[in-house]
Design brief:
The complex is a heterodimer of chains A (458) and B (256).
Chain A: H1 3-18, E1 48-50, H2 55-59, H3 64-73, H4 81-86, H5 90-93, E2 114-115, E3 134-135, H6 157-168, H7 176-188, H8 209-219, H9 230-233, E4 245-247, E5 253-255, H10 277-287, H11 294-307, E6 314-316, H12 319-336, H13 342-360, H14 375-400, H15 404-429, H16 437-457
Antiparallel strand pairs in A: 1-6, 2-3, 4-5
Helix pairs in contact in A: 3-7, 3-12, 6-7, 8-11, 10-11, 12-13, 12-15, 13-14, 14-15
Chain B: H1 2-52, H2 56-72, H3 74-80, H4 82-89, H5 98-108, H6 114-131, H7 138-152, H8 168-194, H9 196-213, H10 223-243
Classes of the chains: A mainly alpha (458), B mainly alpha (256).
């Protein structure tokens, strides 16, 4: 087996499971004053996030529609009341279009990484009375992966998105343009490139003996039904899917999941019951009586790991990534303001303003006990971000009043500040911010300590 | 030339008169902040007695009472007494102050907070004694009002600052009451004279904020409406600053 590749994959999975460092444990939503069940884990404080690759950015820039879709995808306001109150958006589960292996919501999850889309919390009318969570899937390469839903019940991505908003999360009927935009955004999310995969999905480059044996086994007919093989469903030339549903002994018919970038998509199976490829291979060996030797299993895991790899799967959460996302969202205003599109401007101001307020909290104020030093730098960063929030609000108010020229002037000012002024102020304060792992640890450790005192007492 | 000079003198005179009016109004605010901090001090003293008696229920009640007086005064505290503010209201796991005591009383359910309570009483007492002689500038009070109006709009989806005691919504209500009182007492009359429409707008946004924080509990606070009302109020108050002859308020107290 290619040792380097294995180490890289293991490291990536390790990050996914543990966060950026062992000592950094995610901070759960807690207390009895939130719209979410106590001990909900959203992993929003993670210092690394999945890297998102857009097809359109390979050769050019994202379109207005894709940026609008990304904006809506990140906005709680398109969902129902509970999600809005809790600040939950599509992006909470599908972080940068990938999954969220640490997501856990008591009464809606049975393990980290799954979620009951027909549970009672977000839309009681859609509650089927059964705790039957499904794995939160990655959306990378979704345009190749129809039908949609773990059971593949929806051939259309557009119908699926509409259903998530209206049925699963009780959101108001979205405008057709918003649904179109979200679909455009999802369809623009690419697989992470995997240089080990050649045309037709075969392994190329430096392939280890174990990976090569695994590749052969993958296409080998099953001993008790020669019409079947792993590759029969996970078709290498077709993104490792066959667009069909199968019963693989997991309790029903479920669609074939892709193996591309699967190294970063744990947990596995429709309900996320397996953590590792070893467990997945053992399951198939048992259910289909494959008679695999220990070596065969290792070879298949090596092959799956090679197929499931991807370049630079994670990126650090920092000022640069945050500002890029916010600035991409804000490009929507460049079209919506001249058009006097009040709804889109309001959506953008609401969503970007929320992101900027969250970014502000990355720079602790002087009453925060987690950090000392850099007080003036933190004040400068916080002030700049708050000024931007208010600038956006002025844009919203101006468009609402029909003063589009004023809004356009404010938008130009926004762009000037966000490109020429804010980045340096934020960078200047970064070492005293929650982007610094030491400050981050101290802050969340302090919060956990306070909350634990309550749980100990209870 | 003579007309221009007359015009200048007239405007200069008006500006001075406006400043004097605002200075007078700022003095009318003083009893409110003395009462608020006095109430916080009385609550803290009661807390000290309840703690000495190992009366957990009574201590929690006293903490809540002290907290209410403090939150009503936040227009003033962050800008005028930042050092004491940091000692009294540090967060999240402060060694002293309200939140240190909150964690033990409401979190661990323990009353072993004698030292913390002594320190809180001492800090509030020091602040209370300073208040009668402390200069209260209209600019500083407008800055404080604007900062608090912005802060009220922050997300409390995680339970907010006082999540252990579950009183974050009460904090917000007291903050809004403090904003309302400061505006009405110090700035409303002068702004009505300078720009009646803008004055109506400010009042309208404050009423919106009051309506939003009147929700039954924190999870039912309409966060989108809260943020909108908060930010529109700040925008209106920033516009008011110019009309009142004051500088545009800054959104963070400067470090010293």
């Amino acid at each position: 087996m290619n040792v380097c590749r294995f180490i890289a994959a293991a490291f990536a999975v390790g990050i996914l499971i543990t966060g950026v460092h062992e000592r950094v444990m995610a901070f759960p939503v807690d207390g009895d004053q939130t719209a979410l069940p106590a001990k909900t884990e959203l992993n929003e404080d993670a210092l690394v996030r999945p890297r998102e690759v857009f097809r359109s950015e390979i050769t050019g820039r994202k379109s207005y529609l894709v940026n609008l879709g990304n904006l809506a995808f990140s906005s709680p306001s398109i969902l129902g009341e509970v999600a809005r109150q809790a600040g939950i958006s599509c992006g909470t589960c599908h972080v940068n279009g990938a999954g969220n292996a640490k997501f856990f919501m008591p009464k809606m999850s049975t393990r980290p990484g799954n979620f009951d889309t027909t549970g009672p919390l977000f839309n009681p009318k859609a509650d089927n009375g059964v705790l039957d969570p499904v794995r939160i899937p990655s959306l990378r390469g979704a345009r190749y992966l129809a039908p949609y839903g773990a059971d593949g019940r929806m051939p259309s991505l557009r119908d699926f998105v509409h259903n998530v908003i209206v049925s699963e999360f009780a959101g108001p009927e979205p405008s057709p343009s918003i649904v179109d935009a979200i679909v455009a955004y999802i369809q623009d999310i690419d697989f992470l490139p995997n240089p080990s995969l050649g045309p037709g999905g075969s392994l190329v480059g430096r392939v280890s003996d174990s990976e090569r044996r695994g590749e052969t086994l993958f296409s080998k007919p099953f001993p008790h039904d020669p019409s079947m093989s792993c590759a029969g469903c996970h078709v290498p030339s077709g993104a490792f899917v066959d667009h069909r549903q199968h019963d693989v002994g997991s309790g029903g018919l479920f669609k074939t999941p892709t193996l591309r970038n699967a190294d970063f998509n744990a947990p596995y199976f429709h309900d996320g019951r397996f953590d590792t490829f070893d467990q997945v291979v053992a399951h198939f060996d048992s259910v289909f009586d494959l008679g695999l030797s220990e070596q065969d299993r290792r070879d298949l895991v090596a092959y799956l790991t090679a197929v499931g790899d991807g370049a630079q799967p994670y990126e650090s959460e920092g000022v640069g990534a945050s500002l890029k996302e916010i600035n991409d969202f804000a490009t929507v205003l460049g079209t919506a303001i001249p058009a006097g599109d009040k709804d889109t401007v309001a959506l953008a101001v609401d969503t970007i303003g929320g992101e900027l307020r969250e970014l502000t909290e990355q720079y602790p104020d002087r009453k925060n006990t987690s950090v000392s030093g850099g007080e003036q730098e933190r004040v400068n960063a916080r002030t700049a971000l708050k000024d931007i929030v208010l600038l956006l609000r002025r844009i919203d108010m101006a468009v609402g009043d029909g003063r589009t020229a004023d809004a356009a002037a404010d938008y130009m000012n926004y762009r000037r500040l966000m490109f020429a002024v804010v980045p340096s102020l934020l960078a200047g304060a970064e070492r005293w911010s929650l982007f610094n792992p030491a400050v981050h640890d101290q802050h969340y450790q302090a919060l956990r300590q306070v909350l634990q005192s309550k749980h100990v007492a209870q | 030339m003579r007309a221009a000079l007359c015009s200048f003198l007239l405007m200069f005179g008006l500006a001075r008169a406006e400043a004097a009016t605002l200075d007078d109004a700022a003095q009318r605010y003083r009893p409110y902040v003395i009462e608020g901090i006095g109430s916080a001090l009385a609550g803290a003293r009661d807390l000290k007695e309840r703690v000495a008696a190992h009366d957990l229920v009574g201590a929690k009640k006293a903490w809540l009472s002290a907290r209410a007086g403090w939150e009503r005064s936040e227009v003033f505290t962050a800008g005028f007494v930042p050092e004491l503010d940091a000692l009294i209201d540090a967060w999240p796991n402060a060694d002293t102050g309200f939140h240190a005591i909150e964690a033990k009383l409401f979190g661990a359910g323990q009353t072993d907070v004698e030292g913390d309570t002594d320190a809180l009483v001492a800090h509030l007492d020091e602040l209370h004694r300073k208040l009668s002689a402390m200069p209260l500038s209209p600019q500083g009070l407008l800055d404080g009002t604007v900062r608090l109006a912005y802060e009220v709009g922050e997300s409390k989806a995680d339970g907010g600052e006082s999540r252990i005691s579950g009183t974050s919504l009460d904090d917000m209500r007291n903050n809004v009451a403090g904003i309302d009182f400061a505006y009405r007492t110090i700035f409303a009359d002068a702004l009505k004279e300078a720009d009646a429409r803008l004055a109506d707008s400010v009042t309208g946004h404050i009423e919106q904020l009051k309506g939003v924080v009147a929700a039954s509990d924190l999870p039912h606070v309409d966060v989108r409406a809260l943020r909108r009302a908060s930010e529109e109020l700040v925008v209106a108050l920033q516009a008011a600053a110019e009309k009142l002859g004051l500088r545009r308020p800054t959104l963070e107290a400067q470090s010293r």
